[in-house]
Design goal:
The structure holds two protein chains of two kinds. Chain A is an alpha+beta fold. Chain A has a domain at 68-197: Fe-S cluster assembly (FSCA) (GMP Synthetase, Chain A, domain 3, 2-Layer Sandwich), CATH 3.30.300.130. In chain A, 31% of the residues lie in helices and 9% in strands. A three-stranded mixed sheet of chain A has the order 1-2-3. In chain A, helix 4 links the parallel strand 2 and strand 3. In chain A, 29% of the residues are buried. A two-stranded antiparallel sheet of chain B has the order 1-2. Chain B is mainly α. The chains are: A alpha+beta, B mainly alpha. At the A-B interface, helix 3 and helix 7 of A face helix 19, helix 23, helix 27, helix 29 and helix 31 of B.
């Protein structure tokens, strides 16, 4: 039944080894188990008549602090995409890794355009679905990133025999647009993206 | 007219009347005014009517109806025999009214038991003369026939078995008799009656026919019609059919090949059915039969696990594999070896390239097998562990080692489960490798790079399991495991990726459950070394304390933990350790008593804990002047006192109460001290039962608190504590009958408080009093009047008053049943009914300048109500809620958030109600997503609501907004906050999806 799969038995990364934002936040910032026990002082019963914008909103850090889009955020957007062959995520198959995501800031102060480069590592060098995976990632990022980002999806060098061909297809706006007119391709991409949060 | 004539006359027109005629005949037979012979004779012309079959059929029906209405002992044995012969004789020549004949026989049988001859004759007559059953078009007729046969098979097993044994041809006719039956009601009975020959008779010769006769129905694809009056489900049919297939080992040669063939089906339901049936067969067939197919089954079932299509199919396959092993574990060793040999061989092969999809599956397979019995676990361990550890030692790759450890953990987990079922499971095979495993895991935890999270987690899990498996480790080895984990908990201050301290703490508490004494003797002292008596200001001991407190969840070491914490607090206090540290120690103690496992007597925390732990703390407080009191320490001490005191009986509480009465009442007279002690007294009184306190004392406490509430300094924290205390006293201690008088006497009668020049303190006190009353529900009229008074001042006061409404229903852990408060079951509904309609009206009519007051107050009430309470009034609430979203002052963010939460549930549960407001809702939600006027949580919530719209509302209602929404959401994708961006992505995906669906339809 798996004769039609290019790689029937891929290596799987353990979820706890995958990069995640929770893991990289220092433990000290997380609330301790005692905090819930005796709330510093119950704010609910505090006279709400004194709207203290200072104290009420200070613990959820002020809105002015900007959290920039970083490679972890890009990773979170695309690592949950499903592989078209296996019911597994691209992250757990190692198809996308955080080190292969690069954000290039605008080249000159006058430009606002940043570039996101994602390098894709197919599970085998002969994987025929590489293009579809690349397309899925590209569509996902184009829908999920603000327009000031240019999305560049490429096959990691030396991991696929068809890399050049695929890179050309993915870089070509017209061809991406044409692909997204193809109903059966759209269907495949949609199932891949269905597992994205 | 004779009865039969009457019956025939009514039969087609009025069934009830016909039935009555038959009953009447039965009555006459019973009263002996009618002789049986006359009744039969009267039937004669009709039952033999040459031209009209339906008249013959109705005549038999009449006879059946009469017999069914007869009580026992009216007919003699001879009469019954004659009747039986008469009916059977008829069947031979005429099949009209066959259903009625069967019913008549059922009735006759009910009147008196039959002998073997009669039984055999009845069945034979039917099989010979009415074969096949499907010739009768009416379901009811066939139904009566199968009922009769079912009755015979149920009651006269021996007679019918003799029939089968004496006549080898009989079975062939019997099996084919039911062929082609399709009605589910009949099939239910047929599947059930066939089980008698299947399980009890020797059917070896006709096994295939018998098997085919039922397997033809597999898989069941029946769907009951809507409003099916018979209530037969596909599952009922499946269950009965499955029992048939699994009934006799002789079916195996036909069952397994066909079932496995159907396992390749593309329908998940069929596969599910097949797996359930295989499980039933494994249970039902003999071990020696299963032995012939065990390897074939393994070869087929493994694919469902190695290449999971649907998780439940994998689980069912695992279960089936386990059942096969369990079957052999009970009997001989040979079949078990034959079955496990290929399994172990293949699993070992999969281990070689771990960690892969298949090595993960291998772990599950080995677990499912091992858990089916100690003998199986033993063989699995002997077969797999040598290979596993030689691969482990032969590889340097950490990912590979992790994959292997995962598989090992699966096997150990099986041992842990087995041991729980039957203690003293033989763990010899595991022991042989336990030391290897222990060394490997300890090495992983101590030496492996901290960033190898999954490897270390697998080791931690393995260590915990090894400790939990009795006899797997020696005492020394257990100690090493405990030391390793303790060390991780204490010394790993690793930040960021690779921090597995939380799991290590969990592991230590699990280990404490298996070997409490080792943890007590080794971990506890290690913790005490870390917890200094007097640490410097900056040192971070909170994580150590948190971990230590969590050990208290193990009952057997609870007392040790609690005692050490108490002593440590004593020393720290004596040496003047930093306040923060002292508080943490108290918090740890509070944690232990709240979430730990203290000793109980009759389900109640032992009162001795109060005496040993709470009392010294209390004495300490009593001895200090106001200036030395610390708010948050008092709060924690109060909570410790509360949690230990409140479950105790009246007698114990009274003793405590009287002991403390004097110093508390004198402290109450000193305004400074009373204010300082407020956090403690609140918790203290919350723990007391109402009947313990003396009414007069309480009134003076109320007066004192009221005075504080109205006159004390402006410290907001202290004021809120005092207000909660007021609510508590009003709710629990004050006699409802004299409520108003008592309030007046204490200066906190709500009418007075709200009089013309109400200070903000007075308003706070008024809300506190009303809150206590509303939750109590005993002083209904007074509470209603007061609530209305509060509503009335909305028209004249500012927004501050409106915001107070949020406090009325805000959850408060003081006003709870555990604290012996009076909590009416319906108070939320009541408040809703008494305030919300009024405010909806007010919003509609109010002047623009005070309208926000009502909107704020309304949302303050709605915020805390469960959806079910709001549900009936949703229609009228939508307009005010939409207006709430227009409030744009920074102070109103919370109000907005609560409105959004309501819209969220509304979209989830009753999208039709918002449908007509789609335009205004979408616009307002979009406006709420814009920063910085809206806070991050409001923006995120608005996006969540907006994401529900395309899913919950009708396409045509939302499609017009798609372009606008998708465009405006681009801005949200660039929000400053990550959490908002995440929601924006989800929301935008939902709206973009709208388009894709559209293309499909075109």
């Amino acid at each position: 039944m798996d004769a039609d799969k290019d790689n029937a038995n891929p290596t799987i990364l353990n979820p706890s080894d995958l990069p995640s934002r929770r893991r990289s936040t220092p433990a000290a910032k997380r609330p301790g188990i005692f905090d819930a026990l005796a709330p510093a002082y119950p704010r609910l019963a505090e006279p709400p008549s004194s709207p203290e914008p200072s104290s009420a909103s200070s613990d959820s850090d002020p809105d002015s602090d900007r959290e920039e889009i970083d490679s972890q955020e890009i990773y979170d957007l695309i690592s949950t995409i499903s592989d078209p062959e296996h019911p597994l995520s691209l992250g757990s198959l190692g198809v996308v890794t955080i080190s292969d995501i690069r954000i290039t800031p605008p080249p000159s102060p006058r430009s606002r355009i940043s570039t996101v480069t994602v390098l894709v590592t197919p599970t085998t060098s002969a994987c025929s679905l590489t293009t579809v995976i690349g397309l899925g990632i590209k569509v996902r990022l184009m829908n999920a990133l603000p327009p000031r980002f240019r999305v560049d999806v490429r096959i990691k060098e030396g991991t696929s025999r068809t890399a050049d061909e695929v890179n050309k297809q993915l870089a070509d706006k017209e061809r991406v647009a044409a692909a997204m007119e193809n109903l059966s391709l759209v269907g495949v991409v949609r199932t891949m993206l269905a597992t994205c949060e | 007219m004779s009865d039969i004539e009457l019956y025939l006359f009514e039969a087609d027109k009025n069934k009830m009347e016909a039935q009555r005629v038959a009953t009447q005949s039965a009555g006459r037979l019973e009263a002996k005014t009618l002789k049986l012979i006359d009744l039969i004779t009267s039937l004669e012309p009709y039952i033999n009517d040459k031209d009209d079959g339906s008249i013959r059929a109705k005549s038999v029906t009449y006879l059946a109806d009469v017999l069914s209405s007869l009580p026992p002992r009216v007919l003699s044995g001879q009469e019954r025999r004659l009747l039986c012969d008469f009916i059977l004789g008829r069947i031979e020549g005429d099949a009209e009214g066959i259903g009625a004949s069967a019913r008549a026989l059922i009735a006759l049988e009910g009147l008196g038991k039959w002998d073997a001859d009669t039984v055999q004759k009845v069945l034979r007559t039917f099989i010979d003369n009415t074969h096949p059953l499907r010739q009768f078009k009416l379901q009811t007729e066939r139904y009566a026939l199968v009922q009769l046969i079912d009755l015979l098979l149920a009651k006269y097993r021996d007679a019918l078995r003799q029939l089968h044994e004496s006549d080898h041809e009989f079975m062939t006719g019997f099996i084919s008799y039911f062929e082609g039956e399709k009605d589910p009601r009949n099939l239910m009975i047929i599947f059930s009656l066939l089980q008698v020959p299947m399980t009890e008779w020797d059917i070896h010769a006709c096994a295939q026919d018998l098997f085919d006769s039922v397997f033809n129905y597999f898989p069941i694809t029946f769907k009951p019609p809507p409003d099916d009056p018979y209530g037969i489900t596909a599952q009922d049919l499946k269950d009965r059919l499955r029992d048939c297939i699994a009934a006799n080992s002789d079916f195996a040669p036909y069952a397994f090949p066909q079932l496995l063939d159907k396992l390749d089906s593309t329908s998940m339901n069929t596969k599910r059915d097949v797996l359930h049936t295989i499980q039933a067969c494994v249970l039902g067939y003999e071990a020696k039969t299963i032995n012939l197919y065990s390897v074939t089954l393994w070869d087929a079932l493994k694919f469902e696990i190695l290449n999971v299509q649907e998780e439940d199919l994998a689980l069912e396959s695992l279960k089936a594999l386990g059942l096969i092993a369990a079957k052999f574990a009970e009997t001989a060793e040979g079949p078990l070896n034959a079955y496990l040999r290929p399994v172990i061989k293949e699993c070992n092969e999969h281990l070689e390239d771990a960690p892969t999809k298949q090595s993960e599956a291998t772990g599950r397979i080995l677990h499912a097998l091992a858990v089916s019995g100690p003998a199986v676990a033993d063989k699995i361990s002997k077969g797999v562990l040598p290979v596993l550890f030689s691969l482990y030692n032969g590889s340097q790759s950490i990912t590979k080692r992790r994959g292997l450890l995962d598989v090992f953990n699966h096997i150990v987990a099986a041992y842990v489960e087995l041991d729980e079922l039957q203690p003293n499971t033989n763990t010899e095979a595991l022991q042989a490798y336990a030391n290897d495993a222990l060394e490997a895991m300890i090495r992983a935890l101590v030496n492996a790079p901290k960033a190898e999270v999954s490897f270390r987690l697998a080791s931690l899990k393995g260590l915990t399991q090894l400790v939990s498996t009795r006899n797997a480790l020696s005492e020394k080895e257990g100690e090493r495991a405990v030391d390793t984990i303790t060390d991780m908990v204490l010394h790993e201050q690793f930040e960021g990726h690779g921090d597995i301290r939380a799991q290590a703490i969990k592991a230590l508490t699990d280990v404490a459950h298996s070997i409490p004494l080792v943890v007590r003797d080794r971990s506890v002292p290690a913790f005490m070394v870390e917890l200094l008596d007097n640490p410097s200001e900056g040192s971070v001991l909170a994580p150590v304390l948190e971990a230590f407190a969590q050990l208290s969840t193990e009952r057997q070491i609870f007392d040790t933990i609690a005692l050490r914490l108490k002593n440590k607090y004593g020393v720290a206090r004596h040496q003047g350790a930093p306040q923060q540290y002292q508080r943490s120690l108290l918090l740890a103690l509070l944690y232990a008593f709240t979430f730990g496992a203290p000793m109980r007597e009759d389900g109640i925390i032992r009162s001795a804990y109060y005496t040993e732990y709470a009392e010294p703390l209390l004495t300490d407080i009593a001895s200090r002047p106001a200036a030395e009191q610390d708010h948050s320490t008092l709060d924690i001490v109060g909570r410790i006192v509360n949690v230990l005191l409140r479950p105790q009986g009246v007698h114990f509480q009274s003793t405590v109460y009287n002991k403390n009465l004097q110093w508390l009442s004198s402290a109450g007279k000193d305004e400074m001290l009373a204010m300082a002690l407020a956090p403690f007294t609140l918790q203290y009184y919350a723990g007391m039962k109402a009947e313990v306190a003396d009414a007069e004392d309480i009134v003076s406490v109320l007066k004192a608190q009221a005075h504080l509430a109205l006159h004390a300094s402006s410290d907001p924290v202290g004021v809120s504590t005092v207000l909660r205390h007021l609510s508590l006293l009003v709710n629990k201690f004050i006699n409802p009958k004299t409520m108003q008088a008592t309030l007046e006497a204490s200066g906190i009668e709500v009418g007075v408080l709200l009089s013309a020049t109400a200070s903000s303190q007075a308003i706070g006190a008024a809300f506190a009093v009303v809150k206590g009353l509303l939750i109590q529900g005993k002083s209904g009229a007074l509470a209603t009047r007061y609530l209305q008074a509060l509503l009335d001042i909305l028209a004249s006061e500012g927004k501050d008053v409106a915001r107070h409404f949020a406090t009325l229903l805000a959850p408060d852990d003081i006003l709870s049943k555990e604290n012996h408060c009076l909590v009416s079951g319906l108070y939320k509904q009541k408040i809703f009914n008494q305030s919300v309609p009024f405010m909806i009206d007010a919003v509609r009519t109010a002047d623009a300048s005070i309208k926000p007051n009502y909107l704020i107050a309304l949302s303050g009430i709605l915020r805390w109500l469960p959806y079910s309470v709001i549900e009936p009034s949703l229609k009228s609430l939508i307009a005010p809620l939409l207006q709430t979203l227009d409030l744009n002052e920074p102070a109103e963010q919370e109000v907005k958030a609560s409105a959004l939460i309501i819209f969220e549930s509304l979209l989830m549960h009753d999208p039709t109600i918002v449908a007509e407001h789609t335009a205004s809702l979408v616009t307002r939600l979009l406006n709420s997503t814009a920063g910085p006027a809206n806070k991050a949580d409001v923006r995120a919530k608005a996006l969540q609501c907006l994401a529900l719209a395309p899913r919950q509302l009708k396409r045509e209602a939302v499609v017009p907004y798609r372009r606008q929404v998708v465009k405006r959401l681009q801005a949200c994708l660039d929000d400053t906050k990550r959490s908002v961006r995440t929601e924006a992505v989800k929301c935008r995906t939902a709206w973009l999806g709208l388009d894709e669906g559209n293309e499909d339809e075109e």
